[in-house]
Amino acid sequence: MLLLVCSLLSALTANAQPAPHVRVDLVAAVTSIAPGDLFDVVFRQDIDDEWHTYWTNPGDSGAAPDIKWTVPAGVFVSAFKYPYPERIPYGPLMNYGYHNEVLMPFSVSVPEDYPADVVDIKGTGRVLVCADICIPEKVEVMVSIPIGLTVVDDAVSDTFYMAQSRVPVPIDVVSSFQVDADKILLTVGLPAVQGNRIDAVEYFPFAPELIDNPASQIFTMSDEGLVLTLEPGYDFDEDSADLSGVIVIHESVGEGIVSSFEFRMDDSIAPSGSAIPEDGHALGETGLLAALFFAFLGGLILNLMPCVFPVLSIKILSLVESHHDGSSIRLHGLAYAGGVVASFVAIAVLLISLRAGGEAIGWGFQLQSPIVVSMVAYLFLVIGLNLLGVFEIGGTLMSLGSSGGSSRGYLGSVSTGVLATIVAAPCTAPFMGAAVGYALIQDPATGVLVFASLGLGMALPYVLLCYAPGLLAKLPRPGQWMVVMKQLLAFPMFASAVWLLWVLGVQAGPDAMVQVLTGALLIAFALWLLNQSGSAVARLSALLLVFAAIYIGATQETRVVSSSLDTTGGEAGVYSRNALAIAQQKGPVFVNFTAAWCITCKVNELNALDVDSVKLAFKDNAITYLKGDWTNEDPGITEALQEYGRTGVPLYLLYAKDASRATVLPQILTPGIVLDALEAL
Q1: Is the distance from CB of 63 to CB of 119 less than 8 angstroms?
Q2: Which pLDDT value is given to residue 572?
Q3: Most buried of 17, 313, 372, 601, CB within 10 angstroms?
Q4: C-alpha Rg value of the chain to the nearest Å
């Protein structure tokens, strides 16, 4: 009997399978997919504590995951996009790999003539997982996606955000190396990196055995960029070595920012399709004086943008009303300029602080918040009601432009400057892109100075009117026409409020629009009530109504995670890195980075992109049209903007087939500009 029991135990032990040290699965970004579309997938590894898996170049030992895909005919599966690795010492060796959880995104494209009802993606292979020993775990993964309308799965959006945030950003910079005293001096042209902010730099070559992996990697900064001192490896050949790879930079600001970049060796200058803004200066070549000039010029042009011009008109109207008040006019001009400059400086401080804390944001970031959108919509409504004469607070034009000699009038001029800056956020004028991009990668003092120059440019036209008696004398005399003009200017304010409500709908859905419209109704009723009676009961009731409206606006939050912009009747696809890579395999690609709250973007689309001649040219040239929706915060789009030296939208990129870099089109488009770019391509 004892012998029988022992035999049974021995057989059970022999047949028992040990628990795997790495568990894998697939996470799809969609719950269904339309033929002709593509979708993102993440290959997820859940690794036991103290065990690790490997990067594409495993270092001194190990192996990258080896997965073979079985998919239906016509379905295309892209390669993995590896997140940046970590250095893992093992005795005298140094390996490159991962601990804990690893998210490797890739994409799947479905042909337009796909005949089946389901897309089955099956992968089999091995993942090498190591601790004191190494085990090649056999893995099998599968995901099935029904055919139908493309529906994004919001429940897994955080997973895809985390996956994309760790994928190195491809950059097109001049990189070279030289050998000096048996050391490799690798120079990577990263002029935007601030050496005094760097804690550590890690370099991971794509090719194995080019460097001595365990050796220390010493970094310095030069005029050419980041310089790494490396020890050569067994296979290093000075005449043929390709040191392309990944740079991981650990910064000391905030809680510690980690940035990763993928670069390719290139001893030549940037190609003709590289990121050169329309002002003719690449971000890395923009000096302080050039940035100040571009910022000033961009601020000047902002006054002509549709989001700023109505507010400036109100201010000029108030100037007409009181241009006989003498020298106080000049003080009002300075007060207005002070409000504008102070507001831009405040935005700069907030932007720089948030980015130092690791936030992926840029110009116009405040309108990515449904709360801010709701409050600005309320503000436009209140201004419009005041211009129509529904109520009066503090004198003409709600003290936003009163030019009387009182301190309240000066405060009104400051307030108008603040208001003009608030409504300028959705607009990006020509020349602003390079200047703002330059400002946000410099030290804080330089960044604030560039933003102050932007404010000075925006304030200049009104200040000139205040300081030029000849111009003031040509302004018409006050009269009944001013009452009509003031009331007429109310309607652009209402139109702006309607537009912001539409933006809110894109961000938070139709329920949010109804809620904020209710809040607007409460505010309108409160203002009417104040105008009817000055009693304590009326004032208290109005105050409660306003508080209720503010509470409604303050409780709004982003609910629409996926792209909600109109994709031109299906003619535009949703931008992602994977979508771009797959589209480029077929032919040229036009990428439109836009946002619902960006008026400049909407005007360009209406006048230059959604016109028959451009649509026909896209079709005739087999151009794939992709839209990147930055209405809500999207770190992937923010990284794409930063790659081309921008911190806000619009940005228009035209890629040739299989090109690594794109031609950058101007921020203000016409059909001719787009057609000329297509012809040059």
Answers
A1: no
A2: 73
A3: 601
A4: 30
| CA 52 from centroid of its chain's CA atoms | 33
Residue ranges of E strands in 235-388:
245-251, 258-263
Counting Cβ atoms within 10 Å, is residue 363 exposed (0-12), middle (13-18) or buried (19+)?
buried
Q: Which phi and psi (to 5°) does residue 66 adopt?
A: -120, 100
386: DSSP letter: H
Tens of pLDDT, residues 428-447: 655 666 667 666 666 788 88
- Which run of H or of E encompasses 503? helix 490-508
- CB of 232 within 8 A of CB of 282? no
Query: Cα 658 to chain center, whole Å?
Result: 24
CB-CB neighbours of 571 under 10 Å: 14
Q: What is the pTM of this model?
A: 0.49
**Distance (Å, whole) CA 677 – CA 592:** 14
Q: Which amino acid is at 179?
A: V
Residue 472 pLDDT? 62
What 3 state SS string does 39-66 have? EEEEEEEEECCCCEEEEEEEECCCCCCE
Nearest to 673 by CA among 657, 654, 645, 658: 654
What does the alpha-carbon distance between residue 545 and residue 663 come to, in Å, rounded to a whole number?
52
Q: Report the alpha-carbon angle 277-262-99, nearest 5.
A: 140
For 156-214, where are the alpha helices, taking DSSP H only? 157-165
Distance between CA 421 and CA 457 in Å, rounded?
A: 12
Sole residue written with tokens 């491809």: 170
